[in-house]
Amino acid sequence: MNNENETITLDDENVYNKVLLDDLLLQNHIDEFRTEFLTMHTYEQSEYFEDSEDEIRQRIFEVLSPEEVANFFDQLEIDEEEYEALFDTMNASYASHVLEDMSYDNAVDIMNNLSKQKIVSLLTLMNKDDAKEIKALLHYEEDTAGGIMTTEYISLKATMPVKEALMHVKEQAPDAETIYVIFAVNDDKQLVGVLSLRDLIIAENDAYIEDIMSERVISANVADDQEDVAQKMRDYDFIAMPVVDYQDHLLGIITIDDILDVIDEEASEDYSRLAGVSDVDATNDSVTKTALKRLPWLIILTFLGMITATILGSFEDTLSQVALLAAFIPIISGMSGNSGTQSLAVSVRNISTGEIDEQSKFKVALRETGSGFLSGLVCAAILLMIIIVLYQQPILGLIVASSLTIAMTVGTLVGSMIPLVMNKLNIDPAVASGPFITTINDIVSMLIYFGLATSFMSYLL
């Protein structure tokens, strides 16, 4: 490679590879394509597939085996609506073999985006054992521990000798999602212990699994919310967590790669709701589809905005007598909304990370309110001096400054309390979106501002 090409960026390299691979496929250089493609990391393979047109994708299916496609389908990330169309272009028998060769949990994630008719057809064409495992996982809700777990794990009987266990691990390893964490069960398949691969390797051959395992096992119930499971795995630094039913039967495991996907998904969902939209990830949506996703919140906010307009209309006499009052409406409503949004972000984060409990809710609300009051005082003092210097209106300055202080104090209180109340009612606190909090604070701040201005109107005149 010459010096000019040595500075090539990763993006440029990916474009170069795509052009090369496309040419090899279209010119029917199958062996060269396979050599180039199969030396790429599976993530790069999935990226190439995602960026390819339908014609190229169809050619990929023709030149790669189901197992080779399954390797990068495990990392495939396309819009949910695309899967139905994608599987329409695949031969049903070929598609069923691809799903068989994938990790069961990833195969289920894809099948959850297909029509029931297609799911039934694919299951019918699958190997019976694989179909049975996938059917079992399809029954669980998508956002639960059962929905993200895999049944490809290594388990050993607690009464098994170490020497026999090592052979057993070797037999199960090719199909297991992870071999570093091993779970011990009793004769009824109930979870009774956990051990690492290291524990097993360094143990004496004549020892038993129950002698080297840890009996204190942290597990997830099959019905637990995926966000709660992610938080628990983060707290304990697990690379895998067992999933059990209400009688402690071991049903599957959740691995760290699935939890990273959950964390990314939940963060994206919370960000979307804080922004007042339903989905910030869909970059390929049409103008109409994008507008339809955003309209529900905007319509709600329009009606809430009418309340603000009604409040302003009810204080028409006050505004007509002192027109200068209108100049400070954006400052007071904006600062109240901004402080409320800041407080909202802190509360939502504390709730999502589990850093807040029943005892600390009052403390958090008090801290946020105090912060809003101090911030309001500082901003109000600056604004008071500006009004006195520019307009020579000390009474107006005091009214504006007082309104700003009260509005920012109330704004931070509202921003911190609404997510806590929603969480108490088992509603996602991120629903208390930034635009929603801002509009509520607009209403409150206008009532405070014009209420004070009307009360001291005689001094203003």
Automatic annotation (TrEMBL):
Coiled coil ranges: none
PROSITE patterns xrefs: CBS
Subcellular location as annotated: Cell membrane; Membrane
SMART domains per the UniProt record, alphabetical: CBS, MgtE_N
Pfam families: CBS, MgtE, MgtE_N
GO CC field: plasma membrane
Domain CBS: 149-212, 213-269
Membrane spanning residue stretches: 295-315, 322-340, 372-391, 398-422
Keywords, in A-Z order: CBS domain, Cell membrane, Magnesium, Membrane, Metal-binding, Transmembrane, Transmembrane helix, Transport
Molecular functions per Gene Ontology: magnesium ion transmembrane transporter activity; metal ion binding
Topology term for the membrane: Multi-pass membrane protein
Function of the molecule: Acts as a magnesium transporter.
Subunit-level organization: Homodimer.
Similarity comment: family membership: Belongs to the SLC41A transporter family.
Protein name per its UniProtKB record: Magnesium transporter MgtE
Organismal lineage: Bacteria, Bacillati, Bacillota, Bacilli, Bacillales
Gene that encodes the chain: mgtE
